[in-house]
């Protein structure tokens, strides 16, 4: 089961994303802002597989804080950032800090929710691959130690 | 002065010395004139006397001080009117000729006008200033016959010189006062309008420029418009105007030099368009330019009425000109200050608007995003229904979706407009960026022919890559949109000269520019629309808000470049962009 944390300060947005991801049979938690998100991430055991966060909340770079908290808790958590359409600077910043990808919320003519669903699936693939690699490396290490 | 005193008895010299010492210790003009008059009476053993001063506004002689018996208030007032007549009377004669006069028997005198019964002798001397203008007259009478001689005349002239000094010191004091007043007023003026009115008031009242007018230059229209005046012209504030170069006032603005003339109506430049008084009344004219760091920004001018008295010189002096210059200098500096402040206030207001708009756009974007979520769910649930139940509903959902996408387009355009001027600069090769934009935005299979004509090896520019690409995209899409059947899009780049940049787009300075051209063979821009195409909300297409070209303009200008449209209406649009080259310092 894939666990996702959705962070957004708008209730309707949280609800809409949660509903879409539930349709994909994911387990979805929500947080209403940076502080709650950081708390949930720290308390998650096992860690969230995917964190989907809005970039601009009460703090214009709130998404970045969520991203940092997620990666410091589990470096293999994949983070997808929601940005305003056209805000490339923000998006680039997130990518530099290790986000899996970003989704522009108001891209005209694009069904962003299907896009989110796809991005989350891709992110999940990468996480599985990363974790698989780690497992093989650990196994290999055990073998060579023996 | 020395010659006046030659041959004077030593008691007279002592007397004059005493009078000068008195003058030096007196600070009010009124007190000084009275003291002079009393000393005059005493020196020539007269019965009564007065000092009349030339009033520059009216051209009349007005009594300032009187001494001796028999003066009534009425008589003092009457005295004022004496000289408005035919120029008769000894005082008027002395003022007109500038020479002393005395008579020992008034009954036989051709100039004498009787006002007291007991007068037999009368003596009068002019008060002359350093510019040889009559400033007043000292007049003394006596009940004795042949009471006055040349010695008395010399004594009174000496006193008149002291009075003249006193008068000019008083004037300087007033001017100084006026400067202080203008300075304080300027500093306290909340806006340009009230500042200008104050300047006019002080200049006219304190400096005795009879009427003053102030014109401010509108650089764009090349016109000077009246902003402040006092008399008759006051009614024409904001209306009376001169094209630069027109009339005396326009000449001052054009040349940045002053004009001082006693006969403006005979000056070839004089037009008499807007006058403070009737043409025949205008006597002297004095005008100076008001300058700021960027050159002339207005004209301050003063006029005086023609004198009705041939002896009365009413022209402006070099001193007056100096005074007006320094007022104009202060005004120029202060206007520049206020304009700067206005600009700052305006910029702050715009920043506040921008901030508010950006917030609103963000909030709307989030709302729309939530609606898109609901739409997505709605489409999903519809897809679960049997086909016969869902067809109509699906159409509805699609309609809503189209509306939402349209909203997002508008929002996007709005955001681009707001963000046009906030750049993230990097070194950009314009040719590669052009190629990228064409690749991305020019359709692979198009009815249009594409001609790329890019000059190799162009220097780089400091630019915001994505914003510049947005500009190119807009211009490419424009060309496509206006040529639906067939056509051509020509995109070219080259190195431009600063003179071409100046000629086409009014760019100053010696910078070098890269010149980009987007030309098509569509209908072109109608002549009437040319001035409007870069303004927000102007559109001839149904798409978007009509912000497209204004965004392009905003982005290009934020790069210190310019864009203009130079195509011929009917044979295609041609947009030319100038981008400054990054010069190695």
Topology diagram in text:
The complex is a heterodimer of chains A (146) and B (585).
Chain A (H helix, E strand, L loop, with lengths): L2 E5 L3 H13 L3 E5 L2 H10 L6 E5 L7 H12 L4 E6 L4 H9 L4 E4 L7 H34 L1
Parallel strand pairs in A: 1-2, 1-3, 3-4, 4-5
Helix pairs in contact in A: 2-3
Chain B lengths: L1 H4 L4 H15 L4 H16 L3 E7 L6 E7 L5 H10 L7 H8 L3 E3 L17 E8 L5 E9 L7 H39 L3 H14 L5 E8 L4 E7 L11 E3 L3 H9 L3 E3 L20 E11 L2 E11 L12 H66 L3 H33 L6 E3 L1 H12 L6 E7 L6 E3 L1 H18 L4 E10 L1 H8 L7 E8 L27 H11 L3 E4 L8 E7 L5
Parallel strand pairs in B: 13-15
Antiparallel strand pairs in B: 1-2, 1-5, 3-4, 4-5, 6-7, 6-11, 7-8, 9-10, 10-11, 12-14, 15-16, 16-18, 17-18
Helix pairs in contact in B: 2-3, 2-6, 3-6, 6-7, 6-9, 7-9, 9-10, 10-14, 11-12, 12-14
Unreliable residue runs of chain A: none
Shape of chain A: globular
Quaternary structure of the protein: heterodimer
Distance between the termini of chain B: 68 Å
Shape summary of chain B? elongated
The number of distinct structural domains of chain A comes to 1
Reported for the largest beta sheet of chain A, the result is:
5 strands, parallel
Could you state the CATH homologous superfamily of the largest domain in chain B?
Answer: GAF domain
Beta content of chain A comes to 15-25%
Largest interface: A-B, 24 and 25 residues
The CATH class of the largest domain in chain B is Alpha Beta
The CATH topology label of chain A is Rossmann fold
Number of helices of chain A: 5
The overall pLDDT of chain B, averaged over residues, is: 84
* Name given to the CATH architecture of chain A: 3-Layer(aba) Sandwich
- Class from helix and strand fractions of chain B: alpha+beta
Q: What gap, in angstroms, lies between the N and C termini of chain A?
A: 33 Å
- Any idea what the CATH superfamily of chain A is called? Response regulator
């Amino acid at each position: 089961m894939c666990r996702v944390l959705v962070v957004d300060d708008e209730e309707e947005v949280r609800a809409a994303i949660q509903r879409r991801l539930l349709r994909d049979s994911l387990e979805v938690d929500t947080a209403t802002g940076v502080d709650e998100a950081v708390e949930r991430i720290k308390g998650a055991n096992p860690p969230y597989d995917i964190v989907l966060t809005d970039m601009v909340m009460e703090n214009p770079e709130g998404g970045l804080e969520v991203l940092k908290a997620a990666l410091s808790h589990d470096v293999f958590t994949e983070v997808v950032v929601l940005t305003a359409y056209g805000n490339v600077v923000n998006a680039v910043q997130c990518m530099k800090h290790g986000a899996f990808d970003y989704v522009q919320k108001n891209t005209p003519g694009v069904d962003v929710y299907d896009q989110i669903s796809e991005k989350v699936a891709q992110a999940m693939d990468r996480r599985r691959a990363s974790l698989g690699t780690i497992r093989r490396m650990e196994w290999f290490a055990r073998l060579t130690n023996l | 002065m020395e010659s006046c005193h030659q041959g004077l008895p030593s008691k007279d010299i002592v007397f004059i010395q005493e009078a000068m010492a008195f003058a030096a210790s007196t600070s009010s003009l009124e007190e000084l004139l009275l003291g002079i008059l009393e000393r005059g009476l005493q020196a020539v053993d007269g019965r009564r006397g007065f000092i009349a001063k030339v009033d520059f506004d009216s051209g009349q002689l007005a009594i300032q001080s009187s001494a001796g018996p028999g003066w009534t208030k009425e008589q003092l007032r009457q005295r004022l009117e004496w000289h408005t007549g035919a120029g008769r009377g000894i005082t008027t004669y002395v003022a007109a000729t500038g020479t002393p006069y005395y008579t020992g028997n008034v009954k036989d005198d051709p100039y004498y006008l009787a006002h007291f019964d007991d007068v037999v002798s009368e003596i009068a001397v002019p008060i002359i200033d350093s510019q040889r203008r009559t400033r007043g007259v000292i007049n003394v009478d006596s009940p004795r016959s042949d009471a006055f001689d040349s010695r008395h005349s010399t004594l009174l002239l000496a006193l008149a010189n002291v009075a003249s000094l006193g008068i000019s010191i008083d004037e300087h004091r007033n001017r100084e006062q006026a400067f202080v007043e203008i300075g304080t007023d300027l500093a306290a003026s909340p806006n340009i309008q009230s500042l200008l009115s104050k300047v006019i008031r002080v200049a006219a009242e304190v400096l005795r420029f009879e009427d003053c007018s102030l014109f401010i230059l509108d650089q764009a229209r090349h016109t000077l418009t009246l902003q402040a005046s006092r008399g008759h012209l006051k009614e024409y504030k904001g209306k009376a105007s001169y094209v630069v170069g027109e009339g005396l006032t326009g000449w001052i603005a054009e040349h940045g030099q002053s004009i001082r003339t006693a006969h403006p109506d005979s000056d070839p430049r004089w037009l008499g368009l807007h006058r403070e008084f009737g043409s025949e009344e205008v006597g002297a004219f004095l005008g100076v330019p008001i300058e700021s760091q960027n050159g002339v920004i207005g004209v301050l001018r003063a006029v005086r009425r023609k004198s009705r008295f041939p002896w009365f010189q009413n022209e402006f002096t070099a001193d007056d000109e100096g005074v007006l210059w320094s007022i104009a200098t202060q005004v120029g500096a202060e206007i520049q200050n206020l304009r700067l402040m206005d600009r700052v206030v305006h910029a702050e207001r715009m920043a506040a608007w921008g901030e508010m708009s950006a917030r609103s756009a963000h909030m709307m974007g989030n709302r729309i995003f939530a609606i898109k979520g609901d739409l997505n769910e709605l489409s999903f649930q519809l897809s679960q229904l049997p086909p016969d139940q869902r067809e109509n509903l699906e159409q509805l959902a699609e309609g809503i979706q189209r509306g939402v996408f349209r909203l997002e387009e508008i929002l996007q355009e709005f955001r681009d407009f707001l963000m046009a001027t906030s750049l993230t600069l990097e070194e950009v090769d314009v040719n590669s960026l052009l190629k990228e934009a064409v690749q991305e935005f020019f359709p692979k299979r198009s009815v249009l022919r594409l001609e790329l004509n890019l000059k190799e090896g162009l220097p780089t520019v400091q630019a915001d890559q994505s914003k510049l690409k947005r500009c190119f995209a807009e211009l490419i899409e424009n060309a496509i949109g206006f040529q639906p059947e067939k056509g051509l899009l020509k995109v070219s780049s080259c190195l431009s000269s600063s003179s071409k940049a100046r000629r086409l787009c009014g760019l100053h300075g010696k910078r070098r520019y890269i010149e980009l051209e987007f030309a098509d063979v569509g209908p072109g821009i109608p002549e009437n629309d040319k001035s409007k195409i870069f303004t927000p909300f102007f559109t001839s297409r149904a798409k978007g808000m009509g912000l497209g070209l204004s965004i392009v303009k905003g982005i290009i200008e934020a790069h210190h470049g310019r864009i203009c449209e130079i195509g011929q209406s009917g044979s295609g649009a041609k947009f030319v962009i100038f981008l400054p080259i990054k010069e190695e310092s």
